[in-house]
Amino acid sequence: MTATPPLILASTSTYRRALLQRLGLPFAVQSPDVDETPLPDESPADRALRLAAAKTRAVAARHPNAIVIGSDQVASLGSGAAARILRKPGTAEVCQTHLQALSGQTARFDTAVCVAWPDGWAEHTDITRVVFRPLTREDISRYIEREPAFDCAGGFKCEGLGVSLMQRIESQDPTALIGLPLIWLAGALRAASLSLP
Questions:
Q1: In a domain, 82, yes or no
Q2: Over the stretch 77-94, which tens digit does the pLDDT of each residue have?
Q3: 3-state secondary structure of 170
Q4: Could you give the CA distance from residue 99 to residue 149 in angstroms, rounded to a whole number?
Q5: Confidence category of residue 197, pLDDT binned at 50, 70, 90
Q6: 143 pLDDT exceeds 70?
Q7: Does residue 28 sit within a domain?
Q8: Measured CA distances, 120 to 8, 44, 60, 168, 169 (Å)
Q9: Domain count, the chain
Q10: Is the residue at 2 inside a domain?
């Protein structure tokens, strides 16, 4: 009987780690240490997939007999070359700016995930659209004070109080917006011979 390859999450994100724990599989975590500098004229979807693949390959190169998961998410407002990338704000001031821009608008979240295993590769990009209600400065200030989501793309947490900022979420997988599309990932891990219900 062949031993099951070890499972490694190529990410230091606490959100992705918590999501992967939902599948009930033992796994290790490793930092992929990849350059995340945007490329010129790169679409948000292309950037998310490129970085997810780079993270996966970086860790898989160190552990060729493992099953490695890499993921990346890019949040944007607008479309095409004019799309504005909404990064993790880092500070209350930048968070305020992001949320003001999102007021009454629809943001797009491209969440890419790649899985590498000794004799296979799979990749997927989930698109989530978040429609925000019109937000006053007071709404935004109250939100930031109660839930400072400075380490989240766009500056809000849909799994927390941030849901009160929205009119609706359009997605095929609610976990994708948090950072790791588990519906697709479960299928990919089954293809890599891991046992899941």
A1: yes
A2: 987 667 899 999 999 999
A3: strand
A4: 11
A5: confident
A6: yes
A7: yes
A8: 15, 26, 11, 37, 33
A9: 1
A10: no
The catalytic position among 33, 41, 72, 173 is 72
Q: Please give the C-alpha separations between residue 137 and each of 104, 112, 145, 168, in angstroms, as whole numbers.
A: 13, 32, 12, 20
Which of 181, 180, 144 shows the shortest CA–CA distance to 165?
Answer: 144
DSSP three-state, residue 4: coil
Q: What is the pLDDT of residue 1?
A: 45
Please name the amino acid found at residue 179: G
| CA dihedral sign, ordered 11, 33, 31, 62 | positive
Contact 179, 71 (CB under 8 A): yes
Q: Is 33 a catalytic residue?
A: no
Range of the domain at 53: 7-191
- Do the Cβ atoms of 129 and 170 come closer than 8 Å? yes
Instruction: Read off the tokens for 96.
Output: 């305020």
Supply the CATH number for residue 96's domain: 3.90.950.10
Any domain includes 132: yes
Distance, in Å, from the CA atom of 28 to the CA atom of 59, rounded to the nearest integer, reads 11
